[in-house]
Amino acid sequence: MEFNYMNYRYPSQRMVTIGNRGMVATSQQLAANAGLDIIKKGGNAIDAAIATAACLTVVEPTSNGIGGDAFALIWYKDKLLGLNSCGYAPENLSLERLEADGIKEIPKYGWVPVTVPGVPAAWAELSRTLGRLPLWEVLQSAIDYAMNGFGVSPTVAYYWERAYNTYKKVLRQDMFKYWFETFTRDGRTPRAGEVWTLPDHGNTLMEIADTEAESFYQGDLADRIDAFSRETGGYIRKKDLEGYKPKWVKPISVNYRGYDIWEIPPNGQGIVALMALNILKEFEFTNKDDPLAYHRQIEAIKLAFADAREYVTEEEKMEVKVSDLLSDAYGKERAKLIGNEAIIPTCGRPSSGGTVYLATADDEGNMVSYIQSNYMGFGSGLVVPGTGIALHNRGHNFTMDPNHVNCVEPGKRPYHTIIPGFITKDNKAVGPFGVMGGFMQPQGHVQVVMNMIDFKLNPQEALDAYRWQWEEGKKVNIEPDFPSYIARELESRGHEIHSLIGTGNFGRGQIILRQSDALIGGTEKRADSAVAAW
């Protein structure tokens, strides 16, 4: 993919970062530096991804943690690999049990939405199979920041305080007190620029490093999770943890104007981005600021989400085939539904036949697209006493409708929002990309891919460009700098346009592309982001 990365058309925007021996792009400078340090010590892009991810659990706990889930796309030895390290529902978490407990719908907080965490297993699996350095060495920076302190960045400080203001109103049961003990001091959260420590978190990272995550699933940490769950009415048990293993999966893709765009297969929602691109390739786009281009993008996303919400769960339990949803014929059929006016989307029927993101690259050709999350900020509001482990709430995406493919079930993985992306061309790596942010993620993927491929923007320009987010029905949110003439034109087509202020509404992304011998990186202006290059 050839980009004019010295493009000066937009002098107010930051230029791309260029390196050739290693690169790490993520939402925190400290984490990016930690990953690049690992490459300088002889580690590869996989080691760097683990080091960066571990640091992010410390320096950005508002978006991810040890008790979350992870997914990765890895370009290794000229082949693209996929890792699904999201957890399944505990054996005790059945529809019948929930109904007997008087639960009508899956809540955001507490034990009901807690599934088995996959983050520690992802680190261990990636380190053992593809890494070069021992896990204990790779995790040292994260441990150091947790034990000895890190400077809290402005965006993290903002979301930390916002979570606290919410939690002190809604988390009133005694089982939630450990969140406040872990993440507040003297009744407050850290201020921007303040040095903060997370010693319990650091001790847990050391135990994960020393045991290669075995303690988390079979040892002392598993015992602590089990005991806390039993004492406070939880569903998860040590036996659920003992049986957990990440899944190596075959990535899925569509070809978009000569480039193969790759995602993790369901239960992830990467298929939404691919379905939308499969629809959009039926149209020609030349002008980024053409209101009709935005109208068609929005309509395609709506149609893709309608199908995903009807059909997507674990791939083995889906009632339709992924290949059918991504077929050219189905894309053409869905594209015919896009006219001049906004529609209320409905699912089709194909023929048979919260979150942190990081990207890494090294000088051997390895590249990693990695994402991990606790969901909705800190997750369930539960922290395992004495460990710093904030448990996620990914089970919130289950439904209690017994007729729906995504109905809660023991051992089942829920519909999952976090998705890493990757681009190849002619069976060669172009590079990793991602945009975190709940259901914004596939929408962000579509926008940055089109910005680069259709509108010829470099990675930094593609990320800096103003964004939109479809929410529901005909409601579309736009950023404050979104051009008013495009917004008016969209309204004339029936879209309900709402301007939103706030960096968290439109996702946060990173991109690294390989161009000849150079690595070209872009980073998110909506976060405390950085590209560390060598």
Brief summary:
With 534 residues, the protein is an alpha+beta fold. The protein has helices at 29-40, 45-59, 95-100, 119-130, 135-138, 140-148, 154-170, 177-183, 199-211, 214-218, 220-231, 238-242, 270-280, 291-311, 322-325, 328-335, 441-453, 459-464, 484-492; strands at residues 17-19, 22-26, 69-76, 79-85, 150-151, 195-196, 247-249, 252-256, 259-263, 355-362, 367-373, 383-384, 389-390, 421-425, 428-436, 468-472, 475-478, 496-499, 508-515, 518-523, 530-533. Helix content is 35%, strand content 19%.
List keywords for this structure.
single chain, 534 residues, 35% helix, 21 strands, 19 helices, seven-stranded antiparallel beta sheet, alpha+beta
Largest sheet properties: 7 strands, antiparallel
Strand tally is: 21
Measured by DSSP, the beta-strand proportion falls in 15-25%
Q: What form results from the Cα inertia axes?
A: globular
The SS-based structural class is alpha+beta
Oligomer: single chain
* Distance separating the two termini: 21 Å
Proportion of residues in helical segments: 25-40%
Low-confidence stretches are: 5-12
Read across the widest sheet, the strand sequence of neighbours is 1-20-19-15-14-9-8
Number of helices: 19
Describe the structure.
The protein is an alpha+beta fold. It is 35% helix and 19% strand. The protein is built from 19 helices and 21 strands. The protein has helices at 29-40, 45-59, 95-100, 119-130, 135-138, 140-148, 154-170, 177-183, 199-211, 214-218, 220-231, 238-242, 270-280, 291-311, 322-325, 328-335, 441-453, 459-464, 484-492, and strands at residues 17-19, 22-26, 69-76, 79-85, 150-151, 195-196, 247-249, 252-256, 259-263, 355-362, 367-373, 383-384, 389-390, 421-425, 428-436, 468-472, 475-478, 496-499, 508-515, 518-523, 530-533. The strands form 5 sheets. Strands 1-20-19-15-14-9-8 form a 7-stranded antiparallel sheet. A 7-stranded antiparallel sheet has the order 7-4-3-11-10-2-21, covered by helices on one side. It has a 3-stranded mixed sheet with strand order 16-17-18, covered by helices on one side. Strand 17, helix 19 (484-492) and strand 18 form a beta-alpha-beta unit. It is globular. Residues 5-12 have low confidence and may be disordered.
